[in-house]
Design a protein that fits this description.
It is built from five helices and two strands. It is mainly alpha-helical. A hairpin with a 2-residue loop joins strand 1 and strand 2. The mean pLDDT is 79.
């Protein structure tokens, strides 16, 4: 119920039905291009399924999911488990070597 209908029914109950647009009583059937709504939904669903089947959409979707899952699993199995700690250790080793390095001046 709309707020206008509510206030109209409080002020003047006998004019409330006249403020509503025709066809809001729930008895009118919705049609799409002259076809009942249920039949239009059924037809559009059938057309969509036929187009997916003819265009091999299901096959392409399953292939995409398979390739994507395979790439994720492959990447997870190849990557190094403790890369951050190994990089930190390499950085510390480099700094230690750099501090102890003796620089020779080979310029003439």
């Amino acid at each position: 119920m709309c707020i206008v209908d509510h206030h109209t029914s409080i002020v003047s109950p006998h004019t409330t039905p006249h403020t509503r647009p025709p066809g809001r009583d729930g008895r009118t059937k919705v049609s799409i291009l002259g076809i009942p709504r249920g039949l239009a939904v059924l037809l559009s669903t059938i057309v969509a399924l036929v187009l997916i089947q003819r265009g091999h959409g299901v096959l392409r979707g399953m292939l995409g999911l398979f390739i994507g899952t395979g790439l994720i699993v492959g990447h997870a199995s190849v990557r190094n488990p403790n890369l951050k700690a190994r990089l930190s250790n390499a950085r510390d080793e480099f700094r230690a070597v750099w501090r102890n390095a003796q620089f020779h001046d080979y310029t003439l």
